[in-house]
Design a protein that fits this description.
It is built from 10 helices and 12 strands. By secondary structure, it is α+β, with helices and mostly antiparallel strands. Strand 3 and strand 4 form a beta hairpin.
Length: 381
């Protein structure tokens, strides 16, 4: 029997060594724990480096991982979970940290249900974690490259459209000098000017988004009256509303309504949201603006912008704020709608600006019924 036990012990020791994990045996009442030699060897500690105390072991757990690890162990000791399992970082003898997977189970309880003995294993996960990190970094790099390729493709396409308009009408003007009537030449100049403004808007959006991502787009927050800001946005988009036969209805805004914002960037956001509501609306449709003050700390103004457009399909809603994503509008045109333009930066940039001003943008849409955009900003006295 002794020979059998010795052989079994040898096989168990070899199994532990080949499996590269350590074994621990915890006495939660006495706060003592016994570690197998493999346990300490994995971390570079000698077999007799310190007393088998739980306080010594826990002092080597990374501070960020200690509380979650203890919570998982306590939950099992109290019988709330069938087994204990936790991943955390342990400090090695050299001072570095390695990721470990610790798993165990209560093997003995007293009559009151208190855990008297817990046995478990410790497995080194560092290599796997590093491999997962490398894989994730590779995926991020590939995603970045894909986004860059898509951006270059879209930008080249979108820039060609207004550039072709500029060149085409410029050639017509050159060929008709002294022959065409003045009204025709003026219409052609208007097309050239519109294409030029479209190009400038695209370039500005790209530059703003780049500066935002690199932290170089600074904002100057101050109390900004809402009514004048909205009136200016409506004035800037009046030509588009007239061209499409759209009506813009505004509920009365309180004279003292003010928000904490960057005046120029708030104007940019309001103009972008109104432009979207008009551009993707139905000919002859309408846009309604209303505002309400919400109590809170701090109180906030909620602006609601509702349009009567075709709405956004539910499948596209999760992609609303993705840069360069035009939600299929590059190839699909809403019924009776205007030709799509831009590279899909407006909403992404608007949300970033609003967040920097301490607010948020919410968007809801029902296909076939229209879209509602809500802009929430901190109220200013």
């Amino acid at each position: 029997m002794q020979n059998d036990l010795k052989a079994l012990e040898q096989r168990w020791g070899m199994a532990l060594q080949s499996a590269s994990f350590g074994v621990w045996d915890l006495d939660p009442i006495a706060h003592q724990v016994h570690y197998s030699p493999e346990w300490k060897k994995m971390l570079g500690y000698p077999h007799d480096d310190a007393p088998d105390s739980t306080s010594v072991w826990r002092s080597r757990v990374h501070p960020d991982d200690l509380e979650p690890m203890k919570a998982a162990l306590d939950a099992h000791l109290q019988g709330q979970t069938p087994a204990y399992s936790a991943e955390f970082r342990l400090r090695t003898a050299a001072g570095a940290y390695r990721w470990m997977l610790s798993r165990g189970r209560v093997v003995q309880r007293d009559e009151a249900g208190r855990a008297l003995r817990v046995v478990g294993t410790l497995t080194d996960l560092t290599d796997r974690r590093e491999l997962e990190a490398l894989r994730a970094e590779h995926e991020r790099t590939m995603a970045t490259q894909k986004a860059k390729d898509e951006f270059l493709s879209r930008m080249s396409h979108e820039l060609r459209t207004p550039l072709n308009a500029v060149l085409g009408f410029a050639q017509l003007l050159r060929g008709q000098l002294g022959q065409a009537d003045l009204a025709t030449q003026r219409r052609q100049l208007v097309h050239i000017e519109q294409a030029g403004w479209q190009l400038l808007s695209m370039v500005n959006d790209v530059l703003d988004l780049t500066r935002a991502e690199t932290g170089q787009l600074g904002l100057q927050l101050q109390a900004v009256p809402l009514a004048p800001a909205w009136a200016e946005a409506c004035c800037a988009q009046a030509a588009l509303a007239d061209e499409r036969g759209l009506a813009v209805h505004t509920a009365e805004l309180p004279a003292g309504a003010q928000v904490w914002a960057d005046a120029e960037r708030l104007q940019q956001v309001l103009g972008q949201l109104l432009h979207n509501a008009l551009k993707h609306n139905r000919n002859g449709g309408s846009v309604h603006l209303s505002a309400s003050l919400e109590a809170g700390s701090p109180p906030r103004w909620r602006l609601r912008l509702q349009d009567t457009g075709p709405g956004i399909p539910a499948a596209q809603m999760p992609h609303l704020f993705e840069p360069f994503n035009r939600l299929g509008r590059a190839t699909n045109r809403s019924a009776g709608g205007a030709s799509p333009e831009g590279v899909g930066l407006g909403l992404a940039l608007s949300r970033w600006l609003v967040q920097q001003m301490g607010g948020e943008i919410e968007l809801a849409s029902v296909e076939g019924q229209g879209t509602t955009v809500q802009l929430l900003l901190p109220a200013a006295p």
